[in-house]
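User: Show me a protein chain along with its predicted structure.
Assistant: Here is one chain, sequence first, then structure tokens.
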Amino acid sequence: MAPVSSGMAHFNGYLTFCRMNFARRFAVRAAWAGGVWEAAVKMGVFNFWCTASSMFNPSREQVRLFFTEAWAKHRQSGVLTPLESMAVDWMLRHPEYHAALEDPDAVEADFPVEAGQTNPFLHLSMHLAISEQLSIDQPPGIKAAHEQLLASRDPHAAAHEIMECLGEVVWEAQRLGTPFSNEGYLDLIRRRITRN
């Protein structure tokens, strides 16, 4: 993976939260709400867009349109591509996002974490990224770690555990200006296996 470049848009947003001594988890969420999306794209976290669709390094708007259009096709009983079908499966598990998926203005909307909002498009993108990682066991070992998580959690909860680890590793790489760490990512997931 290539090193993360500095000066990402909105990068100062989450540094401000860190300086204000908010909880680490809140700081990670703030980072994802800001410029770490661009960092994650550069690290290859969302490479499935390149192989499963016509998009390469998609913009925020392209990704949001992908989700809203896939949801509209689903609601109209249209024929879905494999990636759209996978996305719709995750959308169905998140009914709290349906209003945003049906709102044309949501493509341009901000979802400020300080207001307690979760970005539905980012959340769904991370679900897709993790699903792709599990399907090809990349990084090697993630599939086995996921199966161990499933021993004590339902599939959705296990996916959210992995998602928190993914967010933390991307945030750390962005903060330190280092490449994405596959070993660090897997280590965080494995630590959660034994956590009650």
